Amino acid sequence: MSDLLVERSDGLVTVTFNRPAKKNAINASMWNALDGVLTEVMYDPADRALILTGSGGHFSAGADLGGSPSGTGLTGRPTQAIVHEMRAAGEIVHRLQRLPKPTVAAVDGVAIGVALGLALACDLIVCSDRARFAEVFVKRGLALDGGTSWTLPRQIGLRRAKQLAFFGDFLDAQQAEQWGLVNDVVPADDLAKAAQEWGRRLATGPTTALSLIKRLLDAEGSFEQALEDEARAQHIAYTTEDMKEGIQAFLERRDPNFTGA
Questions:
Q1: What one-character-per-residue DSSP string does 198-216 give?
Q2: Residues 159, 177, 183, 97: is their CA dihedral positive or negative?
Q3: Which candidate, 140, 136, 105, places its Cα nearest to that of 17?
Q4: CA geometry: angle at 253 spanning 249 and 255, to 5°?
Q5: Is residue 48 packed enough to be buried (19+ CB in 10 Å), middle (13-18) or exposed (0-12)?
């Protein structure tokens, strides 16, 4: 069975890390498979939202540092300087963060190191009440990766980001919710259902408008620039069939039936 499972249903793509015996530690084949599925989702109009999760009670224990064949690096290609290895993995995380379709991380068990970076690169995070998060790098004598030097301070504030990064301690689900690291905490048995509910709502939403909203909220810039970007985004949204359907549904007092067009 594949180390990365991909399921599609009515516009929702569910991607599952599938090495439960290794707590879903990410090896070379998983990096390459994730890279491939992100390309598919980006370019296929039938793919309208994505869930990233893990099997066997864990999201992922991070990079499998011993999981590549001899003579190859993290992503299975010929070994090269670490800076280039990290850039290759970082590009995949960046592509997830910049995916022009909404994403949900469903986190059970541990999300450690670069796996935490992948979760934080998603737009929304729902986790189980037994989830735990850690920036473990400092305990290995390493710096940060997975984009967490950017995502953590923006999502939980600089001082709390430094606390996680300096000590490498685990953050439990309840504290993660209090700090704003995750959107919602649910019982472990309800995690898949909760993630699917959010994913399906996103997959049946106005895909182009959601993409524009995502870009607006992720942007860095001044208030003046935000107003200009909003004007341009609204202009684009006005050209979509989903906008016409949204207005018509409002006038007819019914729920809209968005198609992503």
A1: HHHHHHTS-HHHHHHHHHH
A2: positive
A3: 105
A4: 55
A5: buried
Segment 221-249, tens digit of pLDDT: 999 999 999 999 999 999 999 999 999 99
Residue 61: count other Cβ atoms within 10 Å of its Cβ.
23
- Token couple for 37: 């599925």
* Type of residue found at 23: K
Q: Which residue has the tokens 């524009």?
A: 212
* C-alpha dihedral (17, 20, 23, 26), degrees to nearest 10: -40
Distance CA 248, CA 250 (A): 5
168 burial level (CB within 10 Å; 0-12, 13-18, 19+): middle
**pLDDT tens readout for residues 75-107:** 767 778 889 888 999 999 999 999 999 999 999
Place of tokens 């993630």: 195
DSSP E strand boundaries for 45-163: 49-54, 103-107, 110-112, 124-128, 132-134
Question: Pairing state of beta strands 110-112 and 132-134?
Answer: parallel
**Cα atoms found within 13 Å of the Cα of residue 155, Cβ hemisphere only:** 24
Q: How far is CA 62 from CA 6, 26, 136, in A?
A: 19, 6, 9
- pTM for the model: 0.93
Q: How far is it, in rounded angstroms, from Cα 105 to Cα 34? A: 14
